[in-house]
Amino acid sequence: MTEDLFFDTDCLSAFLWINNTNILETLYGGRIVLPEPVYQELSNPCIPHIKKRADALLKGNIASVQEINAGTEEYELYNALVKGSKGKKQIGKGEAAGIALAKQYNGILASNNYRDIAPYIKEYGLKHIDVGHILIKALDKEIITIADGDTIWKKMLDKNRKLPEATFSDYLKKHDKVV
Q1: Could you name the CATH architecture of 5-131?
Q2: What's the whole-model pTM score?
């Protein structure tokens, strides 16, 4: 069985902001899930080009939207994370939705926001990827080169996306990949 990837807003928008989703399409096409709160965040009327790019992924069946329905286990967890109740730290809707759905459906959480998600990755034993992991997989599959990865990374940083290192090459070194 192939696992779905539940993207939070930050991780997906890193690719949407630079108008480069071909890596996601190639690696994960048909397995990308946008929790409804993430789709709503991407639908901000102040950034219509981001919604347009997200809609293109949906129209091409590269991605789908997953609702979180009241009365479900994932809704209870989502609500606890968003409100900061039941001993849970309050976090954003996108991260909370990704965590709740990845837990419920035994999927992979795609998020760059370690500060908010780290305790829940551990608590729920979630599989997790971030932009760096995605680019490493693309490098391993020869979809990109290291130079391509550095260019993509720089474009993301230029669009004020938060990434853990200054360059993709630095990320590779930190993760013991040969540069």
Answers
A1: 3-Layer(aba) Sandwich (3.40)
A2: 0.93
